[in-house]
Every structure is written in C-alpha cells, then in structure tokens.
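Standup notes
- DV: blocked on the single-chain target, sequence here:
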Amino acid sequence: MLSLKNYTIEYASKQVTLPANASITIQVTEISNNVSFIVLQVHTFLYPVTLKYTNDITNNNNVNGTNIGLVKFTKLKSTLIFYLRSFHNWKIHALIAAVGYTDKSPVPGGCALASPTEMAPYLDINYTDSIISVNGGPSSYNSTTYCNKTSGVKYTFYHTFVPEWDFTEETYFTSILNMMTYDSVIYRSLVALEAPTGPILQRLFSSYPGIGRVFTIVATAPSGAVSVYVPTFTYSCNITINTDSCGLPMTTFVKVENALLAFVGLFICFKGHRYYHTNLFVMGSVTGTFVSYVLLTKFLPTEVDFIMIATVIGMVFGVIWTSTWWCLHSPILSVVIPLLNCCCLITAILYSIIRDLLPVFESDINYWITFFSVSLMFLFLSLPRPLSSNISACCVIGAFMTIVPIAISVGSSIAYVFINVIRRATVKGFNLANTEFPTQVPGEYMQAFWFLFLYIQIIVTVFMSYFIAFFENIVFVFPRRVNELLHRTYAQRVVLDTVLWLFAILLIWLGRWRQMAQAKNRPPFPPTPVVLRRDDPEERVNRDVHDENTSLMADANYPNYTLASESTTAG
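- DV (later): unblocked, structure below
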C-alpha cells in the first residue's frame, strides 16, 4: 500500500520482497483531488516481473520487465489498484513507487500506440557490445485520448552513471530513486543531446560494459508543466549468472597480450627513443594492428575474433616498416609512424571532450576529415624537431600502452578514448551515438598514473641526456674507429648503455659509502643551544686553547658558536 497523502513530496516509494510465484495487489491510497493521473513504477534487480491493470492477463493490460510502469487516471478517486505478478521460484526484491501529476502535465507515453499497453510511460532499451539504444513513446497532452504530433510537447533525454563495477542492489535502487522526479533528474544527471537526423524519441549511447547507467525522458508541455518517464537501467551486459561477461573476454591470448603490451609500453616510454630499431618495429606493429583490425571488422562482418589475426598482420607491418630504415636511412620517414600515432591519440582525446557538443561531427565525412586534418597538423608541427618530437611521442604512446591493460583489469573507462574512434570506423550507426564516458575514481587514478609516467619519463630523459653526453665525450679519447663502432653497432650501443647505467650506480654507491665513512669518523655535533651567536675569536683569550670542547668547536667542519649567556667579554 502506497499513500499519496503528502503530495508535496511528489512521490511515494517502498521496497518489498516478492515471494516465489506470488501475485500481490498494490493500492495507492489517499490521492489528492488535484492529482489527475498516477504513474506506478516497479523496479526489480535482474529478474523481470509483470505489472497489470487487472488481476487477469489480457491484451494491452500488462507489461513485463525489470523497469516497468503503468498510467492510470484517478477520475476523482482516492484509491487506485494495480496487480503485480512474479513467475520465479525464488524471492525477488522490488522497488515500488507511485508518482502523481496534475491535469496540466503531459501523460508520458500516452500516445505510444505500438507498445504492449495503450499508454507506455516506460522506456524500451536494447544494447550490444558497442551501442545502447533507448526508445520512448510520445506523450499526450490536454486530452486522455487525443494524440497530436504538433501538440508542442518537448522531450529531453537524461542519463547518469553509477560507480564502475558496482553490481549491488542498494546502488541499483538508489540510482533509480534519484531519477524519478524532475528536480532530482535535473540535479543528478546529464543531458543527452538530440541527434540532428535521428528520431526525436530515440537516443544512442556508446556501450561501456560493467558500468551501470540510468536513462529517463522528461516531457515538457507548452505551459511548462513536466512529467518524467519511468527510468530504465542497464549494465550493458548480462550479470544474471556472473559478472565475467561485463569485461573483455580474458582468454589466455588476451592475458598474454595485455602483459606484453604493458611491458612494451614501459620499454617504449623510457627507452624507446634510444633503441631506434626496436621503436620502429613496435610503433609499426601497433599501427598495423589497429588498421588491420578496422579493415577486417569493417569488410568481413563475421563472428570471427580478429584480434589475433590483426596482431599477426601488425607484426608483419612492423618488420616492413623497420626495413624502410635499412633501405632509405631517412630519419624523417622513420619517425612519421610514432608521431602519427601520438597525434591520433591526442586528437582522440580532444574528440572525446567536444564530440557531443558539436553536432556537425555526426557526419562521417566531417568527422574523419577533421580527425586526420588535426592529426596531420600536429604531425607537421612536430617534424621540424624530429628528435625531441620522437622522444615526446614515445613517452605519450608508451605510457598509454602501459595503462590500457591496467585500465581493462580495474574497469576504468579511459581505454574507451580510443575505442570509440575504432567503433566510429567499424560500427554502423555509431555516428549518432552519445560517446560521453564517466570520469570516476578508477578513471581518475588511471589519468594520474598516465601523467605520472609522463613526468617520470621527462626527468629520466633529461638526466640521461646530460649523463650519457658526459660519458660519450670521454669516448672521444679512444681511436676514431672505436668511437664509430660504439655509435653504429646496435649491440654495442646496448652494451654501452648497460655499462653507463652500472657505472652510474657504482658512483652513487661509492658516494654514499664515502658519506657513511665520514659520518662514522666525525665526532658528534654538540647540542644546539636555544640562543646562538657567532663567537668572536678575539674574545677567546681567557679560554683554554687545549680544552677538548674548544678543539671540537674549532673544527673546520663546524662554525664556532657559543651560548650567548656564556660568552665572555675581553678586557
């Protein structure tokens, strides 16, 4: 039983436990006279139930699902009755809520003629691995039966995210309660902008499996009165059995590839610019993998997993790209791929910020022309300084390659910065999708981790530049032929780097050992007095020059201080 006696709170809600195979009656009582119709909502976690107008199931009198609702006009009645049925052999937790509206408010879903019920205040939601589709029915206004598309009712889609990888009932019901009333929706959710060419009552969203999302529609009448559709919820995956389906399928190959990607990312971040040929191979392999995956997915729409095939093709392309150095010996041509990868990543980050704010990018032509134009602009600005640009590109790409496997493991959405670009190239209709992704605690940690990598790499690069330059100057005392070998032989360059690192560690250890030896042989420093002043040597004529304390204070390692209250005056 739900009471609307205190209508000022806008709705009444109650959490109940449905017995196995139960049929219960829901009574909404003490309805105020100014309430024209009631929207009764039922939300269950994972398992669908059936909500009915009558006790019997007939055509157009019931709806089945996990986020459902029915509209019933009061007709000046103070009590309305609904019926709820569960067909499961176990108990189910449910949230029941009743929301009242006046006759000035539009009836949500009042003109949804294609729905299972005559009036459908609920939303139809479908999802794939890439896209979430949310659909609603048009509202009626000023009449219970008359539907007019030009009635002037405006629709605004809202959505919000729940904490990543939070599959608890408490969070589920709380997030739905926060989307039931207009004030709460405005305060706690985000607006999903309307696509210029899409249906008015349909929105597409990029799918982020494992991240719960709540959707609703607010219908606004010309008079300013509003009504809220029944909110709907999805994790973009099926967690009824387990939550493993909400992440990337962690096969043995994927685990090995993630570990290898993180290791290679660390290497590229800190040492990629010094091991030139290895850097060429890795950057060429990454580029070949992404390009081949896009082409295979786009033109071979089968159920085959193209990740392994694309990886092999990428490695072949890496070998081919490395051979360009042996054939052409062109440093500019060789650094094009690392710089282009870095520029594409930076452009993808910019797109993730402004994509949903500029409807002009709905057109694939506008999107890709702008994407590659911005990437090439960054590339041409970087080419005049190929060495420093290559170091920066290695840092950015290597750090991103390192955090992506970690982000996939902890459920962070930062990896979707580039995944959305791949979806735009491979998924039909993704140009209409809202690509906004949540910035929550795991994502913030990953961003901080990324910036930390960049900062550490800059410090290491600057240090090694000065350190290696110092020791490479020493190499010039050797014969010229030895010097050329050290710079031209790749294996000897690796040995040189290793020797320099070991020599640096040896110097640091020797310096530390010398400090410890000096500290061991040094006499203890006398306690610091409360008030100190510099002691005048001419005022020490009355002191015993052979006194042990005076000898200590005269040590060259310490300044001569005495207590101001104990100083003597000559004369």
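- Follow-up: Confidence is low (pLDDT under 50) at residues 469-483, 522-571.
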